[in-house]
Amino acid sequence: MEEVASQVLVGLANGVMLALLAAGLSLIFGQMNVVNFAHGAIYALGAYLGFLMVDRLGVFWLALVGAPIGLILVGIVTERWLLRPLLDRTGLEPLLMTFGLSYVITESIRVGFGKIGKPVDIPGELSGTIPLGFMDFSKYLAVAAAIGVVLLVLTWLVLERTDLGRIIRAVAQDSAMSMALGIDVIHVRRIVFCLGLALAALAAVLSAPLRGVHPDMGLEILVTVFVVVVVGGLGSFGGSVAGGLLIGLVTSLVSMEWPQWKDVAIFILMSLVLLARPRGLLGRE
Amino acid sequence: MEEVQKDPATTEQRAPARGVAGAARVAERGLRLGPAELWALLDRNPVAIITLCMVIVGLVGPDLNLATHVLILGLLATSLNIIFGYGGLLSFGHSTFYGIAAYTAGNVLVRLTDNFWVALVLALAVTVAMATVLGWLCLRRRGVYFSMLTLAFNQILFYAAYSLAKDWTGGTDGLRGVPSPTLGFGFEANSIRDPGTFYFFVLAVTVVSLWAMHRVVLSPMGKALQAVRESETRALATGIDSTRVHWIAFVLAGAFAGVAGVLHSTFFHFVGLDAINWPLSGVAVISVLLGGRGTFVGPFLGTGIFLAFQEYLSRITSAWLLVLGVLVVLCVLGFPEGIWGNIKGWLMRAVGRRWQAARPERVVEYG
User: Fold this and answer.
1) Distance between B321 CA and the closest CA of chain A, angstroms
2) Which of A85, A95, A227 shows the shortest C-beta gap to B144?
3) Computed over its alpha carbons, how large is the radius of gyration of chain A?
4) What residues of B are in contact with residue A220 (Cβ under 8 Å)?
5) B6 is a domain residue
6) pLDDT for residue B17
7) Residue environment code for B279-306, b if the CB has 16+ CB neighbours within 10 A, otherwise e
8) Confidence class of residue B19 from pLDDT cuts 50, 70 and 90?
9) Does B140 sit within 8 Å of A99, measured CB to CB?
């Protein structure tokens, strides 16, 4: 029982990271109708930016600020020169472009940092564990998950409680009508694209000390995030969060009970959701 | 005669002249074979272009192994093109079927018999069964969801091959020692051990598959598939069952990817995890994209470029995949009809006949 409780906590903590990524992917899709295939590669780039800053500056918290800023710059360039020319083309073109972009980013990482993964140190003040009575919970994982939850809540507050959020939701619902009402849709899209990338960078930097960085980490996580958004419902913020937590939980529990099924379990879950509810748990049709 | 030469783009000449009707037309007008006619003939028979090029490559090319690999991966890319180029469904998991067929054929050849045809039939049976089930699941969602689902199912089967089905696949060690198959029908047992003979054997299988796929694309079912790609709503309104058409195309594409997989196991005598892993699916997408969606020559051209990069550019720079990624991005942004689509447009202008729109926007019927 204690083991189950500890796996639940670890699963939820990992789920928060997945939720951050899925929320970014989902926001970008809702806004621009673009599935960002490069989201995984962007995640890897964020992790490497974090690694670079920790390595050079030695302060983890600076990486947590610097990596998102770096990716926002990448996002501004990508949106202006690569995505905007494609927005009036059919649905698959932006997906294909980001597919090519994922190669460009992943291979740039490989050329710049080498093929072999690198470890990232846990910041000194957070090493060690918190005794919870039934288990010793990693102090760093707890803090990272807490930061992740704060970020998710902040994103939700921005979307639901601010004028910017109302505009974002309006554009997602009907971009032509929003434009007619005088909203600068292109500007809103750029903001949301950069926001999605910044969330990916934050998730990457928070996860880096737990798993290290590796050029191929992007695709591994991308497939999981795809499963999350299919289960949760693409375009729905709540769905991304629920899906992320659920997938994190399932992965964690299955790898404890039936380790040989740990890689396949989430896909079986996804198939079941597809059969019972093709639009995802919280998705709109 | 004079009249025809003044206005070559008559409606009558647009229609492909086949069989008796074609012979009658030749008898009526005499046989003219200028560059325009030659191009028209080749354009209607893209499989002939590929066959011709690959026969020449086989006879004088510098690297037979590379050429064989181009044939096998070209077949994989062409099969992806059936659903991607003609059906408008982007699958990121096409290596699933390639891998399943390669493992099945490898196991049959290792454990059961060394007859190629038995291995081919059994591998295709398994592949078609898998494609039917996965197609049904993936086609519950369209568009970008379909792409995500195919990638996810590709990962499942990768993990299955990696750990769950280790007894059959060998896990990370791969399936080793797949023997050279025998062909029966009076061929000598060792006849395809020689790389040259094996190349032409692979070429024969590839050409037959390409011909079959070309027939499918030209058939009513192929037209229905392209109609659904252009507008699913309108296709539905004309009575086309779009899900069914997509499903059939998905299974067919899977089956021909399976043929490529069977050739893979006999070519390398080894099936590793990279035969079912995602990067191979990515290679197929890149090949179709670079070469030209919805054409027959395009995917082969794209595969040739990819493998040439992998073989030669990688000797110069380790960033060859980076170059390829940049090419893909540029291609999507600037040349959506791909390299072959552009060459075709250029050739058509060069021979001065515009009986197809000079820059076909999306519909390219003949490869």
Assistant:
1) 7
2) A95
3) 19
4) none
5) no
6) 54
7) ebbbbbbbbbbbbbbbbbbbbbbbbbbb
8) low
9) no
A112-151 residue pLDDT tens: 998 898 888 888 788 888 887 777 788 899 999 999 999 9
Mean pLDDT of B161-173: 88
- Predicted confidence at residue B29, as pLDDT, reads 66
Task: Return the structure tokens found at B147.
Answer: 């792409």
Q: Is the pLDDT of residue B25 over 80?
A: no
For residue A270, give both structure tokens.
């996804």
Q: What is the pTM of this model?
A: 0.88
Q: Say whether pLDDT at B99 is over 90.
A: yes
Enter the ipTM.
0.90
Q: Residue B37 falls within a domain, yes or no?
A: yes
Does residue B7 sit within a domain? no
3-state DSSP of chain B: CHHHHHCCCCHHHHCCCCHHHHHHHHHHHCCCCCHHHHHHHHHHCHHHHHHHHHHHHHHHCCCHHHHHHHHHHHHHHHHHHHHHHHCCCCCCCCHHHHHHHHHHHHHHHHHHCCEHHHHHHHHHHHHHHHHHHHHHHHCCCCHHHHHHHHHHHHHHHHHHHHHHCHHHHCHHHCECCCCCCECCCCCCCCCCCCHHHHHHHHHHHHHHHHHHHHHHHHCHHHHHHHHHHHCHHHHHHCCCCHHHHHHHHHHHHHHHHHHHHHHHHHHHCCECHHHCCHHHHHHHHHHHHHHCCCCCHHHHHHHHHHHHHHHHHHHHCCCHHHHHHHHHHHHHHHCCCHHHHHHHHHHHHHCCCCCCCCCCCCCCCCC
Cβ proximity of B331 and A104 under 8 Å:
no
Distance CA B138, CA B135 (A): 5
Pick the closest to residue B230 from B242, B239, B220, B219 (CA basis): B242
Of the candidates A173, A144, A170, A168, the one whose C-alpha atom is nearest the C-alpha of residue A158 is A168
Domain count, chain B: 1
Q: Range of B323's domain?
A: 31-350
Q: Is residue B193 part of a domain?
A: yes
Q: Which residue, among B149, B163, B166, has the nearest Cα to A261 in the 3D structure?
A: B163
> Is the pLDDT assigned to residue B65 strictly greater than 70?
yes
Are B152 and A82 in contact (CB < 8 Å)? Answer: no
Structure tokens at B75: 């077949």
Q: Which of B11-15, B170-174, B285-289, B315-319 has the lowest mean pLDDT?
A: B11-15
pLDDT class of B11 with cuts at 50, 70, 90 = very low
Yes or no, beta carbons of B328 and A223 under 8 Å apart: no
Q: Residues with Cβ < 8 Å from A268, sequence gap 6 or more?
A: none
Contact B84, B90 (CB under 8 A): yes
Low-confidence spans in chain A with pLDDT less than 50: none
Q: Minimal Cα–Cα distance from B279 to chain A, Å?
A: 10
Q: Domain locations in chain A? A: 2-215
- CATH, residue B141: 1.10.3470
Calculate the CA B252 to chain-centre distance: 11
What residues 223-242 of chain A have any CB closer than 8 A to a CB of chain B? 223, 226-227, 229-230, 234
Q: Contact, A24 vs A196, CB < 8 A?
A: yes
